[in-house]
Amino acid sequence: MLALCVRMMTVYNLMFYRRESDEGDIDIHDLVTSFSALEEKVLEQYTFAKANLIRTSAMNYLLNSGIQWGAAPAVKGVRDGAVELLHTLVSVHAEVFAGAKPLLDRTLGILVEGLIDTFLSLFHENEDGEFRSLDANGFCQLMIELEYFETILNPYFTPAARESLKSLQGMLLEKATENVSDVAENPGHQRRPTRGSEEAASDDRQQGGLTVSPDDLIALAQQCSAELLQDELERTRMNTACFIEAVPLDTMPGSAKEAYDLRGSVDSPNRYFREAPQPLVSALPGYSSRGKRR
């Protein structure tokens, strides 16, 4: 339908240049107005249908992945579910690029903004369920994947999408700080099914006086990103190359440049915790450097 709309626009543009009389110009103006309204309707229906598919993929990514966010495993990289979620936007890119290229930026801008809003709504809807608690590993997993999304989809991030992303990151940070601090204050409530009681009790005594600040979690997320994001962009670049190929070098995030074997240095678009203070992370209980995903 998008392709049909573009073809019709081409027809009335040609007609516009062929008509010379004032009366003809008035007729063409009415035609342009009608086709513009049709274009808006087609775009609205197309993005609505795709947004529903993206919401389903986002639900699978956040809620049906099998991860318990309050007891998440160590971060090893970007999960397959994140790449599968991007595949829905890759399909949209292919369709619109082939049939209605002039509408590509606008279409993906609408859908990327909708994706971040979907993340926000899913988090709110499940605060008493899947996201009742969020530990340090879960926080870092989500933060590195949000940075992964933002780096790849950077050309299509609208100002509204960036604001929504900051809001989401802030809520995740608040939830994780609350949860990790509660564990530090009440270490006996944390389950350790694979460790002996004496070792667990020793850890409890060591962690009993710890306090965990948002800066500690931000620093930990930064460290995960520094260790893993570059390799993950490289590992998945064939899956997401369509979003990078048409981007001017001077606007491409630095991490994406390096992953695609390009030269230059630009700050990552994710400034929420890139520019945050970087305190030591030794206060975080149970933290150790993570091995990179292979």
From TrEMBL:
Name the record gives this protein: Exocyst complex component SEC5
Record's keyword terms, sorted: Exocytosis, Protein transport, Transport
Organism: Linum tenue
One Pfam match: Sec5
InterPro entries linked: EXOC2/Sec5 (IPR029175), EXOC2/Sec5_N_dom (IPR039481)
The UniProt record lists the keyword rRNA processing: no
One cellular component (GO) term of this entry: exocyst
Segments of this protein annotated with the region Disordered: 178-211, 270-294
Family membership noted in the UniProt record: Belongs to the SEC5 family.
GO biological process: exocytosis; Golgi to plasma membrane transport; protein transport
Coiled coil: none
Residue ranges annotated for the Exocyst complex component EXOC2/Sec5 N-terminal domain, each copy included: 28-243
Subunit (UniProt): Component of the exocyst complex.
Lineage: Eukaryota, Viridiplantae, Streptophyta, Embryophyta, Tracheophyta
Cited function: Component of the exocyst complex involved in the docking of exocytic vesicles with fusion sites on the plasma membrane.
Skewed-composition ranges (Basic and acidic residues): 195-206
PANTHER family: EXOCYST COMPLEX COMPONENT 2 (PTHR13043:SF1), EXOCYST COMPLEX COMPONENT SEC5 (PTHR13043)
